[in-house]
Design a protein that fits this description.
The complex is a heterodimer of chains A (235) and B (294). Chain A has 235 residues and is of the alpha/beta class. Chain A has two domains: 1-77 and 154-235, P-loop containing nucleotide triphosphate hydrolases (Rossmann fold), CATH 3.40.50.300; 86-151, no CATH class. Chain A has nine helices and ten strands. In chain A, strand 9 (204-209) and strand 10 form a beta hairpin. Chain B is globular and about 60 Å long. A two-stranded antiparallel sheet of chain B has the order 1-2. In chain B, strand 1 (133-136) and strand 2 form a beta hairpin. Chain B has a single domain, classed as ABC transporter involved in vitamin B12 uptake, BtuC. Classes of the chains: A alpha/beta (235), B mainly alpha (294). Chains A and B meet through helix 2 of A and helix 6 and helix 7 of B.
Chain lengths: 235, 294
């Protein structure tokens, strides 16, 4: 599905990514761990075109995404959520979810049906006519997730989906992510500081440290990896 | 008598205010989507008036028929100007300041070009509606103003429908609300920006025709005044808020015209400024805006 090869990104003299390679197969969840400043968000920004990589390649289903603007990458099926949700505050939830359809030819009825279905899945249908700015931070995360999923992406990039979310909403987000590979047919790149959730949800995990891949493997391998333990605990 | 004067001023203000709100609306959507301060907006309004004048003189086209032609013409100019000039401004580190300076330069250039080609003489559109005035007791309303009001209401209605009911209109509002989010949901911000600048200039052209219809004359020097009025309206209504522009326009129009009938023409703009300063003091984000003025 997604193959990142030897990706680098520098900002002036600072190397944020120093040759990162990773692969996410179809319908799989890849967890991405790392301390603050390790390059996780920079990697997501490179994948969805917000940053232009300095070198390396990013391929989605065998086709390079390099040089494509963000909206075209989104149109190819790459969805994205942000650590701080980026909603349209003075639009209703239904309008927010309809935003991905503004350039397509879906009918009003189809847009409503798909939006309503996702608002139901994130348990916010009752608030469909409320403005996004009226919601709590956690609810806004759910709306952003629904807005991304309503476009039926092939690959989703989730940046800290559990940050600032109360436990009951976090549980709902976990259930939604769990369902993404099989029910929704998409692959997931999950960035989170919540180790437990990443271990629980990911088929494979990559640990970034100072812009490089420090370790890769299953949850058990990562947990016992001495380099990871040292990087995380400093011992 | 004072009550009649007040009512006369109020009616004039509502009519003019609605037309002024078109200036605020177009400036506002341009700023909201592109973060570009179009300081040359007033000159495009005057160019719209000249376009109607020459379409009438050369092709015999009435101002009413000229309006859609001018809208399309100016929208195309705006669309092209976006790619030639505005795109670079919108991408700069500080688009507000960069655009303020460049558009100020463009404003001076357009003013000078109009002076060169059209000369300083004031021009008028040559047309007559029957009857020229409608009388309601002591209240006199020129028919032209009523027709201009009707046209402005139709334009406002179409704009509201476009912004709130169509997908491109909603996308445009989405960009105003959160520019960084729209591309990630698949919206082509570049295309939308070009469309916005086109619509903005289209509105400027049509507003020019409307103003030329209701005021006795226009000249190359009037552009700056309209730009100023546009910015007062934006400050009153709130940056980047289409409804705010409507309310700001009405507020300014009524204040101006009531002052004209109760005091003096020269005091009217002063009162408009006083109103703007009061809003800056007590509600810096404008009546409808959320973003504080910088």
């Amino acid at each position: 599905m997604l193959r990142v090869t030897d990706l680098t990104k520098t900002f002036g003299g600072l190397k944020a990514l120093g040759g990162v390679s990773l692969h996410i197969p179809e319908k799989r969840v890849l967890g991405l761990l790392g301390m603050n400043g390790s390059g996780k968000t920079t990697l997501l920004n490179c994948i969805n075109g917000l940053y232009e990589p300095s070198s390396g390649d990013i391929q989605l289903q065998g086709t390079s995404l390099l040089g494509l603007p963000t909206h075209k990458i989104a149109a190819r099926g790459v969805g994205r959520t942000f650590q701080v949700p980026k909603l349209f505050p003075r639009m209703t939830l239904l309008e927010n979810l309809a935003a991905p359809f503004t350039t397509g030819d879906a009918s009003d009825a189809e847009v409503y049906e798909r939006s309503a279905e996702w608002l139901n899945r994130v348990e916010l249908y009752r608030l469909r006519h409320n403005y996004a700015e009226e919601l709590s931070g956690g609810q806004q995360k759910l709306v952003e997730l629904a807005r991304m999923m309503v476009a039926q992406p092939k690959l989703v990039l989730l940046d800290e989906p559990f940050a600032g979310v109360n436990p009951s909403l976090a549980l709902l987000i976990i259930r939604l992510i769990e369902a993404m590979p099989e029910r929704d047919g998409c692959s997931v790149l999950l960035v989170s500081h919540d180790l437990t959730s990443v271990y629980q949800l990911s088929h494979n995990i990559v640990v970034l440290h100072e812009g490089r891949v420090l370790a890769e493997g299953g949850a058990a391998e990562i947990r016992s990896n001495p380099d990871v333990i040292e990087a995380y605990l400093g011992a | 008598m004072t009550a009649d004067l007040l009512l006369q001023g109020l009616i004039n203000g509502l009519i003019l205010g609605l037309i002024y709100s078109l200036i605020g609306l177009s400036l506002n959507i341009i700023f909201g989507v592109l973060r570009v301060v179009n300081f040359a907006h007033g000159e495009f309004i005057i160019l719209g008036a000249y376009a109607a004048y020459f379409l009438q003189r050369l092709l015999g086209l009435s101002p009413f028929l000229a309006m859609p032609v001018i809208f399309v013409m100016f929208a195309l100019i705006g669309w092209a100007l976006y790619f030639v000039l505005v795109k670079r401004l919108a991408r700069s580190d500080d688009p507000e300041t960069a655009s303020l300076l460049v558009m100020f330069g463009l404003s001076i250039t357009l003013g000078a070009l109009m002076l060169f080609f059209f000369e300083a003489d004031a021009r008028s559109l040559d047309y007559m509606l029957e009857p020229p005035f409608l009388m309601f007791g002591n209240i006199v309303i020129p028919t032209t103003r009523l027709v201009a009001l009707a046209i402005t209401l139709v334009i406002t209605g179409i704009t509201a429908w476009f912004l709130y009911r169509t997908f491109p209109g909603k996308a445009l509002r989405a960009v105003i609300m959160n520019r960084s989010a729209v591309a990630t949901v698949g919206i082509d911000v570049e295309k939308l920006s070009a469309m916005t600048f086109g619509i903005g200039l289209g509105f400027a052209g049509v507003t020019g025709v409307l103003l030329a219809m209701i005021f006795p004359a226009f000249s190359p020097f009037a552009g700056a005044d309209y730009t100023l009025i546009g910015f007062i309206i934006i400050v009153l209504g709130g940056l980047g808020h289409p409804i705010g522009a409507l309310v700001g326009g009405l507020l300014f129009g009524v204040t101006e015209q009531v002052t004209v009938v109760l005091a003096d023409n020269s005091v009217a703009l002063l009162v408009g400024f006083a109103l703007m300063i009061a809003v800056i003091f007590f509600r810096p984000s404008g009546l409808f805006g959320r973003q504080q003025l910088r």
